[in-house]
Amino acid sequence: MACRGFGESMTSEQELATAEAAAGIAAEAAAQAAEQELAAAQVGCGEVGVAVPTGGHPGGVPRQRHGGARSVGFRPGGGEAAAAFQERTGIKAPRIIAWEITRSCNLSCAHCRAAAEFGHYHGELTLDQIKAVIDDITTISNPIIILTGGEPLMRPDIWEIVDYCHEKGCMPVIGTNATLITDEIAGKMAAHNIPRISVSIDFPTAAEHDAFRGQPGCFAEAIEGIKTAKRHGVGVQVNTTVTTENAARIEEVHDLAESLGVDAFHIFMLVPTGRGSDLLDKELPPEEYERVLTWAYHRQKTSPLHFKPTDSPHYYRIIRQLAKAEGKKVTREEYGLDAMTRGCLGGITFSFISHVGDIQPCGYFDMQLGNVKEQPYSAIWEKSQVFNDLRDYSLLKGKCGACEYRAVCGGCRARALELTGDYLEAEPYCAYVPPGYENN
After folding, report:
1. Cα–Cα distance list, 166 to 176, 192, 194, 213 (Å)
2. Alpha-carbon gap, residue 165 to 172, rounded angstroms
3. pLDDT tens for each residue of 352-383
4. What is the pTM of this model?
5. Rounded to an integer, what distance in angstroms lies between the CA atom of residue 359 and that of residue 355?
6. 169 Cβ partners below 8 Å, 6+ apart?
7. Residue 93 burial (C-beta neighbours within 10 Å; 0-12, 13-18, 19+)
């Protein structure tokens, strides 16, 4: 998460950690992909994802608030296959895929999307099956692939998966709880060209974090894992899931992340699915969402980290409202990646593959649109009715359908599905009411 952070699956707490890790990496990847696409259109250059930052800003402008993960010049979805796919179908190729390569996890996080646990899960994709899916994916795109879980480092063949991603032209990154990162593991990450990992830290103190994640000592282990990865030159992104329990502590978590010398800090707004559905009473009310996202808007201005809210599509409305109040326009030059991407990317440039091969718009969107054991990923991406619905903003209902910000926000379709049963309904945790809208 781990989009989440990168992606998503363990026990309650751990799963959330991974889910938000995946989500986090995905979000940054998506934003950087969008920025690079604009750069390509403007200066003819040929996304570095959240997880794979490029060295400098397109056009020679220094990139601000970005960390030091090695520059690789990778542009997800920017290859010939993606261009040919879009020309043939009129559909954008996927740029980021969060892939739950195992549901097994060594933690048990309360907010875990996958409700993962330690142990073997029946039906997980084999290495040969994973390679076959990668072969198919690369017929239509060269995406960033977020390897998540559960805890992806518990999969013995993870380095073979990483190497095959590179071999086929994809960019692998890892969403992890970091508790298993030793010097040996960090050395393998560097040797196998992992540019960034994402790690979930939800509180600034060990007692609070350990209680939330479900295992004593996991805070200290995660912090040591972060430091170890950094020593080996691997970029690190810290993800934090915001709930009523820690909303007042986010500034402290940010400062902790900064003190660790990480590259990015992403806050995740809880999506009540998986074990997270048991935390509905910890979900921020809409008004508090607005407060936290307004804080994020202002804190980004001074943070040395790449700082981005995730799982909070209405943030892209908020930045435009606040910028307008300051007499500014949301441009690439002034707002960087925030001006280049939109809120919900599920089915648009992002998707999720479960440990058994089910395809979803994201790890939180609890609807299986097909399975790669039965149908090629490329066919599901192109032909799924749900994916195609998500690509058509005119289908949005309620105040989301009437909102002037729907093209840059879109609302969280997973929250709408979980709480209303209809993925096209209005975002349940957005306080904004479009001008002239009357709820009938």
Report:
1. 19, 9, 10, 32
2. 6
3. 999 999 999 998 898 999 999 999 999 999 99
4. 0.84
5. 10
6. 79, 138, 142
7. buried
